[in-house]
Amino acid sequence: FARGVRTRLTFRQTTGSSPIWSSDGSRIAFAAGNTMDTLYEKASSGAGDEKELYKKPGETKFPSSWSHDGRFLLYYTLNVPLTGQDLWVLPLEGDHKPVLLLGTQFNEREGSFSPDMRWIAYTSNESGRPEVYVRPFLASGPTGAPSLGEGKWQVSKDGGTLAKWRADGKELIFRAPNGSPMAVDVTTTGGAFQAGVPKQPFVLPPNVGDWDVTADAKRFLAAVPPGRQATQTPITVMLNWQAALQK
Questions:
Q1: pLDDT classification of 232: cutoffs 50, 70, 90
Q2: CA neighbours within 13 Å on the CB side: how many for 243?
Q3: Interatomic CA distance for residues 85 and 61, integer angstroms
Q4: CA distance 69 to 180
Q5: Measured at the alpha carbon of residue 6, what is the angle toward residues 43 and 229, in degrees to the nearest 5?
Q6: Which of 190, 192, 214, 188 is nearest to 201 (CA)?
Q7: Fewest beta carbons within 10 Å, which of 22, 60, 103, 219?
Q8: Measuring CA to CA, how many Å separate 24 from each of 27, 67, 86, 138?
């Protein structure tokens, strides 16, 4: 900001997409490659080169959430035969072998870790339209690999995508079908999950594009069309105009 110069984070010849932050803000994971078939991470300061996390040629993938302890990266794949979009978790320690969490006949995408890593919110169209669901996450399942636990809860009720957790884990923010933000209070007791009634915290202006929310859910950043940013036309008031007419 002091220099007024924009600085690139990556300098690859191919497109980089779907960047997400690590919980401490020190790293950024993203997808790149001609078909988005590779996951990378890089220091958010821009120092050093990006590190390849996982590559599978021809498989389009996008990261969606980094676990609070930095051990796991959620991502989803596109255009998979028979299953469409599938939800995966990539361990960033050990053998770095990806584990399929959800690969049904429906589309599962946009997974998001809860702050305590006990739950995963995601989008699925199993009801016939995209809705937000929550399932338990087991960092070490019955086979020792990460997995989903028993139970599934639908959070949205009139459609929803792109769920994000508030930093204390007591609220989920997601995108309604019309693009507006929706907020849901959540309560967890043992292995049980309970969601409240989705509410719209505020009304966005018309034609607003993408938006994001801070971890405490107190501030939103929205992409506003240029026309709405323009300064309003000033009004000029002339006093004693009758005297001007006489001249």
A1: low
A2: 3
A3: 9
A4: 30
A5: 120
A6: 214
A7: 219
A8: 8, 10, 27, 22
Q: Is 18 exposed, middle or buried (0-12, 13-18, 19+ CB in 10 A)?
A: middle
- Pick the range with the lowest mean pLDDT from 52-66, 155-169, 223-237: 223-237
Token pair in block for residue 164? 């994000």
Could you tell me the end-to-end alpha-carbon distance of the chain, in angstroms, rounded to an integer?
A: 54
Give the pTM.
0.88
